[in-house]
Amino acid sequence: MGVFNWFKGGDEAEAGQLNKAKWNLLETESQLEELIAQSEERLQIIFKNSTSCGISGMVKRSFESSYPLENSQAELHLLHVQYNRELSSAIAQQFGVRHESPQLLLIKNGEVIGHASHGGINGISVSEYV
């Protein structure tokens, strides 16, 4: 892979893997309520992302490139904290988890069953939570 491909996201095989992580934008409290209800049926994953933070972008790309699950196993939700700070705070309060960014929350049966922030995100094996 050349230097210029690195900036584009790598070769075609890697790009195909990136497409496996299908994000739903999380923007409203009603979406959060629906997500909590859906967590009774399958794992819900929230990724709090800061579009102005280079670390957040790197962690998100790394998470996407190694994301192992199919859509039927878990649902991915992306929250841009700059645009939805109130919702991010509501999530922290709802689940009793301090707000951080980047942050990954794994929700099942209406509760956070795993979470991590920054470099710890890539240490979480989401497959273990399905």
Describe the fold and architecture.
With 130 residues, the protein is α/β, with parallel strands linked by helices. The protein has one domain: Glutaredoxin (3-Layer(aba) Sandwich). Helix content is 35%, strand content 23%. The protein contains 5 helices and 5 strands, in the order ααβαβαβαββ. It has a 5-stranded mixed β-sheet with strand order 1-3-2-4-5, with helices on both faces. Strand 4 and strand 5 form a beta hairpin. The chain is globular and about 35 Å long. The N and C termini lie far apart (33 Å). The N terminus is likely disordered.
Structural class, please?
alpha/beta
By CATH, the superfamily comes out as Glutaredoxin
Tell me what portion of residues adopts beta-strand conformation.
15-25%
CATH topology: Glutaredoxin
Can you count the beta strands?
5
Principal-axes geometry comes out as globular
Largest sheet: 5 strands, mixed
Second rung of CATH, namely the architecture: 3-Layer(aba) Sandwich
What value does the average pLDDT take?
87
In the CATH scheme, the class would be Alpha Beta
How large is the radius of gyration? 15 Å
Helical segment count = 5
Helix content class: 25-40%
